[in-house]
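Supplementary Text 2. Reproducibility record for the structural model of the 244-residue chain.

All settings were left at their defaults, and a single model was retained for analysis rather than an ensemble. We include the record here because the model underlies the residue-level annotations in Supplementary Table 4.
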Amino acid sequence: MGNNEIAIEAKNVCINYRIMKNVTVQHNLFKKHTQEDVFEAVRDVSFTVEKGGILGIIGKNGSGKSTLLRAIAGVFSPNSGSIDLKGHTVSLMALGVGFKDNLTGRDNISLSGMLLGFSEKQIQEKMQEIIDFAEIGEFIDRPVRTYSSGMHSKLAFAITAMLETDIMLVDEVLSVGDERFKKKSLNKMKELINDKSRTVIIVSHSIDTLKELCDRVMWLHDGEMKEIGEPKEVLEHYVDFMNQ
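Retained model, structure tokens:
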């Protein structure tokens, strides 16, 4: 790094979910929503990631990690605050994001590529490489709804790994698949990360993965940032807290 060019800037990001209570439609139409109907998934989170930086995000389930990642990916907008990617292209590597269940794996590769801003020609050039890496055999020409979660994640990983964007967002994908595929994914991930022009955010529960891959770690707890900084230090504090 060292060039201090910012690739991702999040300012005071708040993301809320409406919780629908079990009441009639009429009741919902005519009553004013009270504060209890809103769940604050992410509360007032601010951070920057330098170009070429690798930020890990850790926290217990329900702490807002995946929600924040999806907002950075543009899957939805924050309720308040801002996320600025400084004009960089971004891809999200996560289970269940962006695939159309009725389309084949091959068609989903094309669709994902187009959504990431690649031309048809660029996608076709990478198509066989993606198929080979994913290792799902003849399922590539079957609808994605017939896939196991392992196949799903293998294809998601292959697409994001081969169609290289400026910013890569990785959500727990490395923990799926058999040991051999995990190892292959981790090696590919290291190769992608070592490209100093690529910026990466990894959401994971794996202390070892974050320690090995990241240069900074952010700890989210109940939607708020508890700490951000040097991986070893933040992860130690997180482990101590979780063991209390």
